[in-house]
Amino acid sequence: MSFNNLDTLYRQVIMDHYKNPRNKGVLEDDSLTVNMNNPTCGDRIQLTFKLEDGKVADAKFEGEGCSISMSSASMMTQAIKGKTVEDALKMSTIFSDMMLGKDYDESLDLGDIEALQGVSQFPARIKCATLAWKAMEKGMKEE
Ligand code: FES
């Protein structure tokens, strides 16, 4: 089965984020910077984000990678903006559970992220989808 077998609507959402990425760029000043590679392919992401009063005030990403990794980064930055650090980390756990095909906590609105659910059927692509989330977790935990 290939990526093209993903549900059409979900695929459209993924391709929209890939072609029109939200929050693409680099934050300057007091932002946190995290660089991470996907070891299986060498693709990379740079995530910059700014925390204020325990919340994600802003987040941007740069990088090179496949449609799944870049759309996931776009969705992730969109989802965590304005969230508390605790909720951003909770979303990361939810996303990880989703990728592993487990039941996941539905108490937070996941928005477009749900479009990536189908990636759980393609084990080789799960690291693509989780790359941006792992970078975010790393940054939060180092803060
Ligand atoms: Fe490299 Fe997806 S193939 S991140």
UniProtKB/TrEMBL annotation:
<comment type="similarity">
    <text>Belongs to the NifU family.</text>
</comment>
<protein>
    <submittedName>
        <fullName>SUF system NifU family Fe-S cluster assembly protein</fullName>
    </submittedName>
</protein>
<dbReference type="InterPro" id="IPR002871">
    <property type="entry name" value="NIF_FeS_clus_asmbl_NifU_N"/>
</dbReference>
<dbReference type="GO" id="GO:0016226">
    <property type="term" value="P:iron-sulfur cluster assembly"/>
</dbReference>
<dbReference type="GO" id="GO:0051536">
    <property type="term" value="F:iron-sulfur cluster binding"/>
</dbReference>
<feature type="domain" description="NIF system FeS cluster assembly NifU N-terminal">
    <location>
        <begin position="10"/>
        <end position="128"/>
    </location>
</feature>
<dbReference type="Pfam" id="PF01592">
    <property type="entry name" value="NifU_N"/>
</dbReference>
<dbReference type="GO" id="GO:0005506">
    <property type="term" value="F:iron ion binding"/>
</dbReference>
